[in-house]
Specification:
By secondary structure, this protein is of the alpha/beta class. The protein has helices at residues 36-40, 47-69, 88-105, 114-120, 167-177, 184-192, 215-228, 234-238, 259-287, 303-315, 325-328, 333-344, and strands spanning 2-7, 12-20, 25-34, 78-84, 108-113, 135-140, 145-152, 155-161, 229-231, 254-256, 292-296, 319-322. The structure holds 5'-O-[(R)-(carboxyoxy)(hydroxy)phosphoryl]adenosine (KG4) and zinc ion.
Length: 362
Amino acid sequence: MTVLAIETSCDETAVAVLRGDGSRRELLASEVASQVAAHEQYGGIVPEIASRNHLIHAPRLVDRAIKGAKIGLSEVDAFAATSGPGLASSLMIGASIAKGLAVGLVKRYLAINHLEGHLLSPFFGRNHESEIRQNVSLIVSGGHTMLILVRGLANYQLVGRTVDDAAGEAFDKVAKMLGLSYPGGPEIEKHARAGDPRRFDFPRSMLDSENFSFSGLKTAVRYLLPKIAVILSEVEQSRGITETTVRRSLSIPLRFTSVGAQNDLCASFQQAVIDVLVTKTIAAALKYHFDLVTMSGGVSCNHELRRQMREACTRKGIEFKSAEPWLCTDNAAMIAFAALLRLHAGFESQVTEEIDPNLALL
Ligand code: KG4
Ligand code: ZN
């Protein structure tokens, strides 16, 4: 069975072609067109720019993926698209193209939940292709922070979720405060590498709950900032007194008391997020007696988070599996993988199925 999947839930346009039977899978093509440059100057995603770019990129990527897979469009058995959660105007583009192809070529259509794509991604990779096993899954992305008990495909139970900001959102917002570029996660990670994670004492919120909260942490950074950095006045700026290490086009002109202060702030912030994610994930695995922890989503690219989560799992005798780095941020391979598993399990969607910006996983 061959699946072509389209992912356009946010600001990445992606298309993948995956072939497989029940146990073996072969990724024939995976294309991603990033829009980071188009949104960077605004410090976040602008929905209309995102959907206009999807409209430009998606047809080209479908073409490239089909050529790369060395198959004809008619050889695709099912067309899949992310149907939510995400930006309505972005979701619409991918879903409409997939539905159009399914109707035109008289093939099956599958609407896939973006979060299920992330959730299953630790089980898919170029090097390991294992069966879905019972696991505690931590999804940490720009829009979501969730702990889920996975008992099998489509058998999910929510343990906890963020009550305010998602972990990735906190990285992005703090980065913006520091005048770093978007997306903020990789930038903060880069600065954190040279910093001292014990320098600033940030809050670890709601440690006794199964839910998460990151807005207090963000506020703590905001309160600390004036103590270790000054916003340069126009006069100072016009005199050319700028801090080159933190200056970017349209960013806040900040001068830290030292470059070390900025690195220490990034390291301390990152460690506060990691402590919360690791503590709650391990607590859930122990409480529900699960011997496998998986982690996915953009924030799970973070090397320090991966290292500390693996170490914490090992200490408790729990196996740990994270999505391969290329599968952590948004891509269509994970959507194709979820679609293929669902097809084999007998699921199918109607082309009348609508996109849903708030689509729930469970
Ligand atoms: O999964 P994803 O590509 O999109 C969503 O579905 O939200 O996640 C994007 C998020 C952004 O907030 C980005 O800052 C964060 O993942 N991110 C990271 C890292 N790489 C990406 N956060 C921390 N450390 C990283 N290395
Ligand atoms: Zn995502």
